Amino acid sequence: MTETARSHTPSETARYTKKGLKIERIFSTEGVHPYDEITWERRDVVQTNWKTGETVFEQLGVEFPDFWSLNASTIVTTKYFRGAVGTPERERGLKQLIDRVVSTYVKAGREHGYFASAADAEVFEHELTWLLANQYFSFNSPVWFNVGTTAPQQVSACFILSVDDSMDSILNWYKEEGFIFKGGSGAGLNLSRIRSSKELLSSGGTASGPVSFMRGADASAGTIKSGGATRRAAKMVVLDVDHPDIEEFVETKWREEDKIRALRDAGYDMDLGGKDITSVQYQNANNSVRVNDEFMRAVENGGEFGLRSRMTGEVIETVDARTLFRKISEAAWACADPGLQYDDTINDWHTNPETGRITASNPCSEYMSLDNSSCNLASLNLLKFLRDDDTFDAPLFAKAVELIITAMDISICFADFPTEPIGETTRNYRQLGIGYANLGALLMAMGLGYDSEGGRAMAATVTSLMTGTSYRRSAELAAIVGPYNGYARNAEAHQRVMRKHQAANDDVRTLHIADAEVHKLATEEWAKVVELGKTNGFRNAQASVLAPTGTIGFMMDCDTTGIEPDFSLVKFKKLVGGGSLQIVNQTIPRALKKLGYDEEKIEAIVAYIGEHGHVVDAPGLKPEHYEVFDTAMGERALKPMGHVLMMAACQPFLSGAISKTVNLPESASIEDIEQIYMESWKLGLKATAIYRDNCKVGQPLADGGGKAKKDAAEAAEADTKVVEKVVEKVVYAPTRKRLPKSRQARTTSFTVAGAEGYMTSGAHDDNSLGEIFLKLGKQGSTLAGVMDAFSIAVSIGLQYGVPLETYVSKFTNLRFEPAGLTDDPDVRMAQSIMDYVFRRLALDYLSFEERSALGIYSADERQRHLETGSYEPVEETGNASELVETAPAAKTTTVEAEVVEVTDEDPLAGAPEVKVAKTTAELLEQITGHAVDSPLCMTCGTKMRPAGSCYVCEGCGSTSGCS
């Protein structure tokens, strides 16, 4: 049943002011509720942990629009629906969720005089509902969690705290941070007010220094995480570059990474989430050094730089600026921390300098404002504003922005905050953070390279239009409901920053008709901003940021998050009813059509991408068009400076900053990092974070190459003279367990993609495997000799105690020709002969529990899973001795098996794989053969992928950050 807007009583209508907003109907249709324009369907949402097979969530019959993907509906159902599952109070569809949120916003707008009439309030309600239901934008997660429920109405995801040089303030920091973590959000703060370990206390003793207090905060964050949170605590710790303890701060995580490496080599479990990782410190925070122009110029010119007392401001120590800058870069090379925040740039664009300086940011570095403040976010789906002729609909985008920024400001009227100081600052300055997602997909669809002048011009104009429209609406709101409370004392500074934005917009050079149209409208908006601001002031101290858009990006079915380029050209898509499908990014055919390719060539190029995961040497694709399809990972990965240049193009048009990590290959040098940090400062960025591939030990990898890559990283450290600690190890001499003279053996014949072979395996008396012999090729051939040598090596390893499951985990999924269909019903597809051999050995010699941990099942077990939902054998009734087989009998003669064609949609096609792709990150690893350095999701165990400076799980929507 469709819900309609309720009628308004005369008393309610009287509350509207004559000065209220007139809301224009743009998206919805007059006389038709937005829900009535959508086709709805019922879906079953079931979520399992792929490691254990355990069902972690189930809700049947939820209602969503038919064009929402299964992934989007799963994430919204599991993350945002309120009420206990199985109770009448549980939300059962998207309509209830949107109505819960929108009705709260509309009610607050009525009560606080935002609308000119009851009819305008109704139009606002329909427009907001239409935009949300059609995936044009989304509020940040706390809105969906809290608004319209009995819980505190917290709408903000980003918080900045404050700590002073007193024990009361430090202990209060611990408490406030804990409450924010408990609520699923993140916080950042600057510790530079705390006196250094080189200064004296009033009692005459020596101060502990900020780094010592970081230990307590880190332990608190880890405890709250392990106490039930579904993700690691998100926090940012900042220290000014002139603090006397800056070198100790820079080295904190660097030293701990050395410790992690040593403990790993000693046999301890140091993976992210491992049982021994808690023995090291400072792992729950991102660290950033706040540098100023004085320091960066000293680095550039090779001068000295003074470290200043926190109490008197006097220089108490002088250091070589280049040496300190080198140390910062070495630490970032070794462990990805610290990042840099550019203090003078940040405060030059600060609209409230009379109130106080900006000293810190939220954990993802996009929100930068006053201490003890918060920001609520919302992001638009840019691809929704692409016309059929592949031009950007700037007027429609501007209409959406002004509606959304109005809703965001209304939320502050009813919002609750974790602490009173945060609430007071936020209500007084009303910081907002509108942003966008799907920039990478938009540029690709328009035929523009992410790392190109055309791509950067388009991104800059869209960002300028967004922020200009936001501030124009903020000035209009100021005329209706008043400017923010702190505006009067900061009016001159605020207007100065508006003029800086306007000047930056004037400096943009457009390169084609599409961005020229956007730029023209942006120019008009900034002119209105400056004019209206002089008369009305502004309702909001801050308007825009570029957030990671992790979970909400999936809610909107975005191909790319935030400002990011496309992660990979091949996607992982869940199918209704179970299973998954590998598909080529659907933006690619549109981009190819835009570039002038006909249907036949598009089909051939798409097929090539589906097989190879990149466009290099794609049939018929011109090399000059390769750049359009560059991605964050893979064969055509973007160069690090390409990311920096895109951030620099958009930064002048943002109130805050940008959540993004500049990813570097493992081979990157310390000099490369120095260059990125220096160029980021020169280009006017507010913050930069880097991540060198595989630089962290506590980072689960998805392939067997992880250990080798770690060893390579350590060798590179030695080459660059980074200090490495040597840990003595105790060496144990293995003992060989020889097979008896007379032993059990089985011979298996097999065919892989038409190539025939034989395998003979011998076992100990306890039925554990002790030797194998492989017969491939003609006697005396090179292949036969290599197989004999390989068989002897594996056999000796088995007899010296190497577990069979170790061989299985290493050699399954090894891909080379011949590869394809086999004649074995238990292993229908093999990526190579080695892949087949060790899957067969696993089925013959490993227990069900050991095999299931590796994802290897027999045909009977897979069939049982389709029928009952479980792979496990079930004991038959009536005869306790008769059990369902857990492994097939060995084949001692040639097997005459029926060859069945396996299609992409066959649910058994991927079942035997040891590492079946659960996300796009894992799929990319399978295609390229290279690991993606991302953590595993703590909720469902699948591999996450980068989203801004955070990570997001495509399986359940969990993020490692604060949005």
Automatic annotation (TrEMBL):
InterPro entries: RdRp_reductase_class-2 (IPR050862), RNR_2_N (IPR013678), RNR_lg_C (IPR000788), RNR_NrdJ/NrdZ (IPR013344), TSCPD_dom (IPR024434). Its EC number is 1.17.4.1. This is Vitamin B12-dependent ribonucleotide reductase. It catalyses: a 2'-deoxyribonucleoside 5'-diphosphate + [thioredoxin]-disulfide + H2O = a ribonucleoside 5'-diphosphate + [thioredoxin]-dithiol. GO terms for molecular function: cobalamin binding; cobalt ion binding; nucleotide binding; ribonucleoside-diphosphate reductase activity, thioredoxin disulfide as acceptor. Residues 740-844 form the TSCPD domain. Its cofactor is adenosylcob(III)alamin. Catalyzes the reduction of ribonucleotides to deoxyribonucleotides. May function to provide a pool of deoxyribonucleotide precursors for DNA repair during oxygen limitation and/or for immediate growth after restoration of oxygen. Pfam families: Ribonuc_red_2_N, Ribonuc_red_lgC, TSCPD. Residues 44-135 form the Ribonucleotide reductase class II vitamin B12-dependent N-terminal domain. One of its GO terms (biological process) is DNA biosynthetic process. NCBIfam families: NrdJ_Z, PRK06556.1. The keyword Lyase does not apply. Keywords: Cobalamin, Cobalt, Disulfide bond, DNA synthesis, Nucleotide-binding, Oxidoreductase. Gene3D superfamilies: 3.20.70.20. Residues 156-691 form the Ribonucleotide reductase large subunit C-terminal domain. It comes from the Bacteria. The lineage of its organism: Bacteria, Bacillati, Actinomycetota, Actinomycetes, Propionibacteriales. Belongs to the ribonucleoside diphosphate reductase class-2 family. SUPFAM superfamilies: PFL-like glycyl radical enzymes.
